[in-house]
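So, is this right?
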Amino acid sequence: MRRAIFLVLSVVFVGCAGEDAQVASGGGGMGGDAPGGASGEGGEPGQAGEGGDGGRADVPDGCPALAGEGTVHGGSVSEDETWTASDSPHFLTSDLSIYATLTLEPCAVVRVADDKGITVRADGAILAQGSADQPIRIEPDGDVNWYGITLLGGTARLSHTRIIGGGSAQNVVPDRRGALELHASVDDPIEPDPVLFVDHVSIEDSVTQGFVAQAGGGFDPDSRALTITGSRGHVATMAPNLLETLPEGNYLGNARDDILLPDDLPGQIHWDVTIHDRGIPYFSGGTNQTGMTSVGSLDGTTGTVVLTIEPGVIWRFKKDTGLLSIDPNGESTGVLIAKGTKQKPIIFSSGEEKPAAGDWLGIRMGGSDARNKLDWVTIEYAGKLVPGAGSDSCQSLTDGVETHNGAALRVYLVPPATLVSNSTFLESATNGIDRGWRDDSKPSFLSNNTFTNIALCNETFPRDSQGNCPEDPPCPTTP
């Protein structure tokens, strides 16, 4: 018979982890059309597949055989305690809230019931430090979908730990759920809050995403060797301002091997962020999302925000409305530094399986900061025509009709002449570069960039400082 331990020490249990996390998640997202994952056949994200067991094994490598009926836990952890290997498996038959430090010994096994989960709250922590031959396992109790682990004010340090299954969507849009969910442990963070450390951790067969990072909660900078595989949705859903915390790892073998960036999660890019090449694309989009990512200060009082993109990054955008907006208010509060190499260019592209010209809007640069730079960059399948989007180029109106109001790259204030170099503009439905400013200075970007299959002008012609245009403004094209 299972030995039961129910902890209710001076704590009023206020609901299941799923309900709490639902309030924190909110919003809509993508993933509803993702196929079933590696854990079984069929099933939309958030639904059980058939025949999968999440990769469970009764005994981890190097660990003794499980003996006895195990231990049942429920309610809350309000004082520091340790769950041992000898008392494994540890069964969670109800949601567990953690307000103190819960330590999991090497070889410990935790099994969670259907739709139940673990929430680590303020002052709470999970400390799970296994080893290569004595890993820790957190998994479903049978063929069920458990909710996952939510850091909601608390923290976790996980080493040589397998998280199997999890990510039950309950009544949250599936792409806002994951086997792990990260939130900041402080109110109104001004930089990523490193609430989760991982070292040789695997997240396997989540029924939605591997993890969700939002509301300022990110990975400890020393995190490494994270594996996410078998997820039935995206690898992860992340607020764009937390991307720098994504550790090196192996992120292949999921229904969608990409990182989803919804635009309504708390945290468009309003502090300095570097986007690393982690071997998979980033995707701005999601259900009920425009696919717009913006870079700039929240209110103009926190200084200039710099987005740096490393060589090799691939960034895709949602059809029709996808957009990367740099300094959208034109107040020099946002900067883009995208420097690829000949061998590893940075690619901005469509998120469509069969991309076409005009799939997405492109990149807009509202400011004129001299640090803005695009070198060895490809912008492809952009340039969707947007009537009324505004431009001061001479081509913005033709006979009173907005036929040119779009471009792969739109620049609204006079940029440095070095803004764009060694770059490729491919398959734009309108222009390559819209020089949409009013000024007598007219730096051109034709000489050391490549323009292929541009429907209109390779670059438009800006008005002068008085708003005037020549009678026949130049519209260079490539034969």
Remarks:
- Confidence is low (pLDDT under 50) at residues 1-57.
- The CA atoms of residues 244 and 274 lie 5 Å apart.
